[in-house]
Amino acid sequence: MLNVKWRPVAIIVALLVLGHFLLLSPYLDSRRLSADPTADDPLIDIKHPPPVTVTVTRGEAAAFTETLVVKETVVVHEDLSESQEKANAAFVILTRNKDLKDLRETLIQLEDRLNRRYHYPYVFLNNEPFSDEFKAKIRNVVSGECEFGLIPTEHWSYPDFINQTRAAEARKDMAERKIIYGGNESYRHMCRYESGFFFRHPLMDKYKWYWRVEPGVKFACDIDYDPFLFMEKNDKKYGFTISIKEYIETIPSLWETTMNYMKENEAKIPEKNLMEFVTNKDGGYNLCHFWSNFEIGSLDFLRSDQYVSYFDYLDRAGGFFYERWGDAPVHSLGVAMFLNKNEVHWFEDIGYFHGPLWNCPKGKANDKCWCPEEESIEIKNKGWSCTLDFVDLPNP
Ligand SMILES: Nc1nc2c(ncn2[C@@H]2O[C@H](COP(=O)(O)OP(=O)(O)OP(=O)(O)O)[C@@H](O)[C@H]2O)c(=O)[nH]1
Ligand SMILES: *[C@@H]1O[C@H](CO)[C@@H](O)[C@H](O)[C@H]1NC(C)=O
Ligand SMILES: *[C@@H]1O[C@H](CO)[C@@H](O)[C@H](O)[C@H]1NC(C)=O
Ligand SMILES: [Mg+2]
């Protein structure tokens, strides 16, 4: 408690702060509603103008959305402290016991920036059993329920149709050519698992939405709305923060295999899709993909016959082992084939770092962040990022 002699001072300060808000709020509100958002923001690129239509249910959100590039009509939902509505969702984290320290750093940020208000549960997955120390020290830093799952061996081993001699030769060759993770066997099991199995782990069955988190990633901005409910209310199926171009050496035959799948499964491909996002002018792969270390997405989409049949087709082709197909391009090609632009959302407002790249909100949206906006990949390295091209695609 405050020492008695300071109480009058505290009351005066509180009154001053309150008065400040009462006087300023009409001005702030009208500015939010009427200002031309481009007028005072030097960072807005005229080629990528700010949103024309933004529907919000909360005054605060209008100011928040004002400086974002995203062109779409969205509904931002109220904080849980006011409405009790919650999505059927969980964070899902593939990790190892040795990641404990990095993971705790990440989860403390995620809780501070978001989940202390929402208490969404966590599912931790591992190909080896989690230690008691790991479980206890994770439970100590999060506000949601935790479940710890073991990955079944069939999902983290060679399928019988893979020639392991050929796989070993491919690793040796790719290591000699210094291809990133080229010689790494466990990395390949990880990529295959994240491509085709995490959403089928029994612990995920009860959920409709997932948010993928990795040990070591950072969250830089206060997130004052529920991103899961945002997805649900706006009929989104897949959300990302960073998009970049893949190293071609890791996926030499992924595009051709995908094209073959599409030819053989025409009936499964909706007319309105996002293939334009991944296709270059001569009809090849432009290497663009959503970086899958961050994803907020629909589990029903990944569990759909469409997506699973695509994964099975890729798995049979062997590229997870004979090449080094990453789960990011695989998810992204699945999204591009089966979803349309309105179903995919750039969480421009979520300040996110996965070494070495940032997604960082610009302008007013940066006020509750500690990330530098000029570091955001789509500004800092336009040629490597695909995000502004995504934004420019026509809505269906
Ligand atoms: N249980 C388990 N998790 C793994 C294994 N390898 C990677 N992971 C997890 O899989 C995810 C991706 O692995 P990373 O090593 O971060 O791969 P990356 O993001 O492509 O590469 P970095 O640039 O090193 O981060 C992370 O959540 C890891 O914790 C593994 O062998 N076992
Ligand atoms: C497996 O791959 C090796 C090396 O590429 C090859 O020599 C061998 O014939 C293959 N085995 C089968 C059964 O295809
Ligand atoms: C192999 O990949 C894993 C991530 O899956 C990484 O932690 C490990 O350091 C890599 N090993 C080598 C030798 O690069
Ligand atoms: Mg990583």
TrEMBL record:
SUPFAM superfamilies: Nucleotide-diphospho-sugar transferases. Keywords: Membrane, Transferase, Transmembrane, Transmembrane helix. It holds the Pfam family Glyco_transf_15. The chain crosses the membrane at residues 6-24. InterPro entries: Glyco_trans_15, Nucleotide-diphossugar_trans. One of its GO terms (cellular component) is Golgi apparatus. The active site is at 295 (nucleophile). Signal peptide: none annotated. One of its GO terms (molecular function) is alpha-1,2-mannosyltransferase activity. One of its GO terms (biological process) is cell wall mannoprotein biosynthetic process. Belongs to the glycosyltransferase 15 family. This is Uncharacterized protein. It comes from Coemansia interrupta.
